[in-house]
Protein 1
Amino acid sequence: MTINMGPQHPATHGVLRLVLELDGEVIVKAVPHIGHLHRGVEKLAESKTYHQVIPLTDRLDYTNAMGNNLGYVLAVEKLLGIEVPKRAQYLRVMMAELQRIAAHLIWLGTHALDIGAMTLLFYNFREREEILKIFEEVAGGRLTPTYMRIGGVSKDLPDGITDKIKDFVQAFPDHVKEYETLLTKNVIWLNRTKGVGIISKEDAINWGMTGPSLRGSGVKYDVRKAFPYSSYDEFDFDIPIGSVGDVYDRYIVRLREMGWSNAIVEQTLERLPKGPFIANDPRITLPPKEDVMGDIASLIRQFKIVSEGFQPPKGEVYASVEASKGELGYYLVSDGSNRPLRMRIRPPSFLNLSALPKMIEGSLIADVISAIGSIDIVLGEIDR
Amino acid sequence: MAETNFALKKLQEKFPDSILEVKIFRDEVNITVQRKNIFEICKFLYLDSDLQYQMLTDLCAVDYFPESPRFEVVYLLYSMKNKHRLRLKIKVGESESVSSVESIWKAADWLEREVYDLFGIPFDNHPDLRRILLWDGYEGHPLRKDFPVEGPDFGKPFVPEV
């Protein structure tokens, strides 16, 4: 029997359509169909200046906007060869890690909801709301903050926000314990996740999986450690890995990862350097807003950068970050004009999803739900 | 950079005639190789015990219209053992095809389908070469430079068949 799941289905986390071929309750073949959310971001980027592309990146994986911004600005900075001030690097790390916690909280809540543990969602969204409030104060936006700028960040921290972040950081480890009491040793949870959706180490690498989904299979690969960017080498953190590569391992990896992200945020708060929050390169970076209002030279600079952009040298670069879903890479090709000749986004969810049939073929139909939840896909990023 | 030169040196020893160009930009090495040898080169990089490029991080294409040959297919490989990335490129003309590397890395399955969908570059020996982001029956390949951003049907009235 062949059944169709999605594209409108609450457990597919977006508009994913799966065609499942069944033998009784066992899946013989699973074929994912994607593209329902294709907006042509890569094509659009070719007709925009480098600054104008930043808001587009927010809308890829909409649960991880800060991380998407970061990957893009790193690629442009590599192309230009400019240095970013230390304070900006720390601010970026702080926001990216808070965003990682928020993204993992959505994942945990919805994943647990799919399997039947409804309580957790409310706890998760309570903490996520705190993070979004912080983002609102820092960047002005909640879901799509567009906080990063080429050469730094858009604004410095507002007064009093560090205390709020500190409060969050101090309270968060206890909240993680709360989640754990609900799930980690829960018999129903164990039955639904242990030994389900297994993918081996070799297969996970061969399928190009990255992020917590790869680390659940026991591969210690994290872009933050393998190719440290934005001063990640100065922070003290570990990379949790699983052993079996089932849904439960991926759950444990993400849960531990939230704890380490929290620790990184704490370290950025303690060691936040003083100094400018954006590089001062008259050709590339935007001038401070007060100056734009005050003197004509800065006004011209702002106008030139916003209307014409800048012209990076001819060449191509690849820069990647560890987004909440995995390795998010940007491959930029410049022909020397003010618009990218090609912007390729390497979406982690896309490759993680391509391994889904491998995980679920041969297992029961009810396990599809937990397997989809465990690879943590966001269709905005898969379809671009 | 020593590691880079190592991978490059091995390639130059093994495939002396296939390497067309080596370019270094921002410490990233770009190796352009001949289109017909891409499968053998990838297989070698994957299997060689010193290199072990086990992961195909990305596979994409770039359109350099109106240059000829117009396309470039780019392979980004990663070696867990050496913690090293390598970028291979091949030049592909308008009506040429590329051998699929799906039998080496499963990751290439969807990535090649995407290149086929958005650029119209066919891959030989691919098990399931269908459109992936756009629907079957869609006309044109949107990431080509001669495809308008608004789409070819922009401004035309849409009358559904009743």
Protein 2
Amino acid sequence: MNTVQAGLLTAVTFGLLSALAALLIARPARSAVVGVGIAVCGAGALVAGVAAMAGQVAWFAAPDLLPLSGVVFAIDPLGGAFLAVTGGVAVATGIYGIGYCRGGLDGRLVQCMLPLFVLAMMLVPAAAGVGTFLLCWELMALTSLLLVLAEHRRRPEVASAGRWYAVMTHLGLVAILIGLLIFAANATDSTFAALRLAGHHLSPGLAALIFLVTLIGFGSKAGIVPLHAWLPRAHPEAPSNVSALMSAAMVNLGVYGIVRVGFDLLGGGAAWWWLLVLALGALSAVYGILQAAIGTDLKRLLGHSTTENMGIVLVGVGAAGLFTASGDLTLAGLAMAAALLHIVNHAAFKTLLFQSAGSVVHATGRRDLDYLGGLHDGMPRTTAAFGIGALSASALPPGAAFVSEWLLLQALIHGLPAGVSATIVMPLAVAAVALTAGLAVATFVKAFGVGFLARPRSREAECAHESPPSMLAGMGLAAAACVGLALLPTLVLPTIGAVAGGVVGSGDPVTVTATTIALTDFAGSLSPLLLTVALVIGLVATLAAARALATRRAAREARLWDCGAGPLSARMEYTATSFAEPLQRVFDDVVQAEQDVDVTHHRESAYLVEAIEYHRRVPDRIERRLYEPVLAVMAVWGRVGRRLAPGSVHRYLGYGFYSLCALLILLVVTR
Amino acid sequence: MSTALYTQLLNLVAGAFLLTAVLILWRRELTAIIDVFALQGVALAALVGIIAVAEGSAELGAVAVGVLILRAGVLPWVLRRAAASAGVVQRETKPLVNVVSSLLAAAALTLLAYAVSQPLVELAPSPATHAIPVGMAVVLIGFFVLVTRRLALSQLVGFLLLDNGITAVGFLTATGVGLIVELGVSLDVLLVVLVLQVLKTRMREAFGATDLDELRELHD
Amino acid sequence: MNAPSVYGTVGVILQLLIVIGLSPLLIGMMRQLRARLEGRAGPGIGQPWRDLRKLMRKQRTSPRGTSEVFRVAPLLLVATCLVVAAVAPFVTTASALDPVADLFAVVALLTLGTVALALAGLDTGTAFGGMGASRETTIIALVEPTMLVAIFALSVPVGSTNLAAIVTSGLDDPAQVFSPVSLLAAVALIVVIIAETGRLPVDNPSTHLELTMVHEAMVLEYSGPDLAMVELASAMRLTVFLGLLANLFVPWGIATSGSVPVIAIGVLAFVVKVAVLGAALAVGEVFLAKLRLFRVPELLAGSFVLGLLAVAASFFLA
């Protein structure tokens, strides 16, 4: 039994045991036992994934377990990468969940679904047959749906979010089902190995159809525009550890599907497919971060940020595909390595961000940034954790995402693909990535600065207390991962580079030394560790110089500048809405916020104003333009259909009878 | 038993089977409908019994006895009790399709059943398979009763006709129908009848009558 | 990573000394030039150093309600400028830390400094701090595309974003300087520098009206040594940006070997180039008024188009 098999066996055993324990154990110990179980399961998956990336293989086939297609699992390096990411996220969220779920979320159903969700997410990259893949995918969707609905008794919006999620994930499943079944119909049987062999002989039109249909399904799961509407609805309403799992582990599987079907099973494909993927990725990145920059709900902001990051990953994947199609394999490997590294980085910092957001919600009960603030006093560790996550997410050095975006930019600027259209695409892609980086900086400055710094803006923020130790431990694990990936990406890059090279068929796209990342075949190197060390030395030197040269008098506390009018109240602080207002104005054509101003005049005179109420809503423009017409058409269709169902039992029975007779007559006549 | 006797008996019983179905369409009183249904149960049991004797299978004989008890005994008894609890003797006064048209429709359905069943008969010609169109016709007539009758109990009888026809076709095509399957189907039917019974009682308590046409008002 | 050579280390020390020592003088020279052109006597070139000395002697104040972020931000700002001054090729092309001397890394470091200041502005909890932070982050967000596309344009002829490589290729091929790619990229970068360092027409560094402030509003609450660090840092940022502009486009005079006269010429060339660019900027500011905040995106969009054209030109003329 090799490491991969051992790891997977541990993971599956502990996952199933935790699910069983959730049903049997009494409430006081339930969340602790399940949390530990999920952590061990995640650790097993992490070990198995890393071993698989290093080249060990494992497979498992049980042809009779499922009717018609059987169950077949096989792990290759690409699947191992996603398995490892899921495992890592599960470890951190498992420990976090011990403290978070105590209280309202330790019901039997929720605690049973958590390990099953993790298991399903682990098994999707391991599936090696169409039936197995769809089974695990659907299991993942169902368990996550039940988890999203966990708090539906406490808040009515949860039900609506659950409905959106259910409908969109199942429409995605139908698309993937159709695509994979068309593929399997043109192959000898439905295992991925057979599909791989058949993929080389498909006609271009059929291959394009399969790719496009599966892109719809997988893109929806990854939260890509225009099928992203479920993400900003489901993530805020789900419990925070579930949001972390969904954002950091589940949406990656959409990207996994695209890479698996496009690169592996269909064998690369035409350039225009990848141009489409790149365009969708760039659009999602810009749109997602714009919505995040303008929003004030902390968890919805993080959900939109997930759309943005998945968009950046798809820009990398699309670039890799474009370079493969034009024959530039080293660059393709570089772009794919950048995409995979960004997935790893995103998993680390998104877990941390959702965990700290959950910590804030746990302590204050509020999600709206406009009512938070001043949390650094009562929750210093959570503030530090969110700060680390925000630094990583904003793609600034010494954050984690800086390295992956650097790699992506290097891949994009070195590409000189043939064709005038591609010449326009690369600079626009660089511009899109740059715009998202700038807006991401704005978003996370807003989230961290308004949410955690300055003074509290509401009573709940004033009374915030620090989270329990298990939640802090979970956050600590994720923070350690963020910091490790930021300073020492050289530890993971060789493996990720090898996996990326394997996917596109090139050699290692990056060479690493202990501290430096260097590009193979191109001049360019980066050392995040040295950069951080230099920065720290600079800080220390500045501090020393300042202490030495400045006056020896002790610091005194002073009043903030209030123009002499008296102490500043919390109402005078800048809120998230006001912070984002210039951006909202600049992007008004895209955002189109709706504003209402209600002025209440004084009873006795219309010239005196008693109160002014200001409401601002930022609707999702893509939803309004794309979804509402579709929903309107369905409503009309439903109304027409109502005329078919007036309530008479006879009529319903009659439909059945008359259609049966008609069919039989048809049978007789056409024989 | 000789082949000629077998064929004659089989045709006789099949004819009785079909006739009872047509009679259900013809009679108006609920009690009469239920009695004719019981007779059909006897005919079905006889059909199975004849096949059992021809095959020399004791298992099939046991099934025949079971069918007799269930479809000629238990089910009509349940239906009679349901009809009696209504109090006044009910009559099917205004079916959706009047009696004359119903009978013509029954004839058309029988022809359709014959046309559709031809390939089945040609697959394995034997006296048993020649009777398959009868089973199909009873299925279609049962469906027709289900669609066009107003009283809940008449509809239930139509459903049971449907099931009788399916059972007959089953026994005629494959002479060795598993006991388990027959048992399962029968239990299913029993369950349906009981549920519909309960539903009917509840509906009467809530709305006063079970003339399903009056229940159109329920829809939104 | 190779150990830095002697002349590399010497170069780093010289660069740091020049940037720290002479950047306030650059600011002073610019102010003096503006004053003279506007018909005033002017305070003299050494005034910024006198201001720094005065601020260092004042008592440090710490506003009530602020956190560590407020206290650390000036340090971080100065530290990022120091790192960039140390690694970028100003006096010599041999960088002490070659893996850090990547153009993307350098501009990202400078952005980190601005972000620290924006967070400090938000940390004060005053309306002015928030306003300054909000405006500054909007400008950063809109400047990023232009900056990265201009870097893209610069890297295409060279095949790398390593600063030393770009400067060396400029030295090797003088005609490249006058190509359309360079000129367009230079104009785009000039607009970027004006936006990043907060000069007219994007921001007025000498305004007293809080509602017209961008950078000054963020640092309104700083006083004493903290304010001295912020002022020094903004002077260093301007020097660093102008130095990058000078050496990326007009690299002659930079030291490529280790002998003393070459290094001396390198120092002199750097000082002269930055002084000339600073003087040109000062003269230009005399004739410009500050743009309304919501006209700034138009300016940045225009520079973005120029950057995009630069990239397209580099592809077609490659």
